[in-house]
Amino acid sequence: MRIVVCVKHVPDAQSNRRLEGGALVRGEEDSLNDLDENAIEAAVAAKENHGGEVIAVTMGPAGAKDALMRALQMGADRAVHICDDRLAGSDVVGTAQVLAATIRELGREEPIDLVLTGATSLDGMTSMLPGALGATLDWPSLTAASTFAIEEEEVRISRYLDDFDDSLAAPFPLVCSITDEANQPRTPGFKLMLAAKKKPIDRWSLDDLDLPDAHARWGADGAGTQVLKADERNQARGEGRIVPDSGNGGVQLAEFLLTTGFVSSERSQA
């Protein structure tokens, strides 16, 4: 079984993130997306139980190589880094096109059976990539898996969305996204970390992929969305004021909203 696990190098959630030129600044306090560790764990466990190979793939600037190294430390066999300045500013559709082309290229060696991703990335938080990747590959996609199991020629998952529970199955090849409820990622020891340094990380550019320019959606020019304006978060916060409710709490709240400008007097009268 050949498994591709897609990972992402993202700014640390606790860092002071900022936008420049409409794009998120990367390379400062970045790390492997936390939820991708669950996808890596699922991939490595599947290889241990069923045999095969795990290939970690990422698309990003030079620093994204660190995310691949973490995947190799956790048990991936090899890695591919798609690094090209022309990819800067890509949206989810463009990213899915590039990752799908990478998976197809890897499939020329030997067919890919399964693609795993984290449930979402902690920078964009859209959860759209797994579905977009499945659609681009024309493969089934099972998303937000809280449990994950390989049974003969298919994958079975369960997931909990809003007010209902789902049990789904799909045959190979397919795309599946894994939540942090599915497993407990392993912590690599010193020997595994040393062994990871000997594993190959291939660096590819757009020129290494079969991506026709006529349908290009990657890069800032091809993105379907664009950041027009962004303001820094207001860090200054005063102490809150506790107002005991003696029967007129609703009135006091309404007066507060009016005086602070959250609600206009014209709108309140309407």
In short:
With 270 residues, this protein is an alpha/beta fold. 29% of the residues lie in helices and 25% in strands. It has a 7-stranded parallel sheet, sandwiched between helices.
Description:
The structure is a single chain. The chain is α/β, with parallel strands linked by helices. The chain is built from eight helices and 14 strands. The protein has helices at 36-50, 65-74, 92-107, 129-137, 190-196, 219-222, 249-260, 265-269, and strands spanning 2-6, 9-11, 19-20, 23-24, 30-32, 53-59, 78-82, 114-118, 141-145, 147-151, 154-161, 164-171, 174-178, 201-204. The strands form four sheets. The chain has a seven-stranded parallel sheet, with helices on both faces. It has a three-stranded antiparallel sheet with strand order 10-11-12, with no helix packed on it. β10 (147-151) and β11 form a beta hairpin. α2 (65-74) packs across α5 (190-196) and α3 (92-107) packs across α4. The protein starts with a strand and ends with a helix. The mean pLDDT is 87.
